[in-house]
Amino acid sequence: MKIIKWPIIYFLFQFVLIFLLAYTYISSGNDINLFNEYFSSKQIYLALILAIIFIPLLIKDYKKYEQKNKFNYFYLIIIGVILSLFYNVFAYYFNFLLKTSLFDNNNNLIVTLVSTGLIGPIIEELMFRGIIYNELKNKYSNMKAILITTIFFAIIHFNIIQILYGLIIGFILIFVYEKYKTIKAPIILHMASNITTTLFLPILTKNILLINYSIFLICLILLIIIKKYTKIFKI
């Protein structure tokens, strides 16, 4: 129960916030059909509330596992950017088979950058790699802890495209955490990946095949080079 404590509290708290927002909106006599637009305008405040409440609590719970090791920010940012570009091009052209709304790109850029690019990675890394993964390691083998954490992390994204990416990036984030023994490392990589996705989607959704496939091939080559000539993927 302790392992899933934070996800349950976190999602219940979000539900309560959204319910209160919806109740206040409807009880004021507003049109329910316009709630989504209203919610989008308040999303930045909800994200900030979550950050102010949960980040300090998660840091406090995670502190016993933290080791203050040094790592190369530049490498992790580059890898996060490359992984995001590579997967998003693949996912975009696979997405039409699934008919999901993942690439509708209707969100406000600033709101998405703050909530998904900055706040989300901090909370998710502290929760999943920082607390859940370490708690699981105390009970099970490393491999079982990795699998459970990664699958759990992927499933909470709900959309099939994001679940696939969650499985891939979730494993990489645990690898990075194990390599450097500090939660700051996967946070940096996760931020770089999410911010890149947010900034790249407007270009990707223009469906310019030459540009998109060129980016895909360049990223594939860079991943191979990084894997072969750097120590980033060696523990």
Short description:
This protein is mostly helical.
Question: Hey, roughly how much beta strand do the residues contain?
Answer: under 5%
Q: Which stretches of 5+ consecutive residues score pLDDT under 50?
A: 97-102
How many domains?
1
Radius of gyration: 19 Å
SS field, number of helical segments = 8
| Coarse shape | globular
- Distance between termini? 31 Å
Write down how many β-strands occur, each being a DSSP E stretch of 2 or more residues. 0
Q: What is the N-to-C order of secondary-structure elements (H for helix, E for strand)? A: HHHHHHHH
Considering DSSP H and I runs of 4 or more, what fraction of the residues is helical? over 70%
Report the biggest beta sheet as strand number plus sense, adding barrel if it closes.
none
What structural category arises from helix and sheet content? mainly alpha
The residue-averaged pLDDT reads: 85
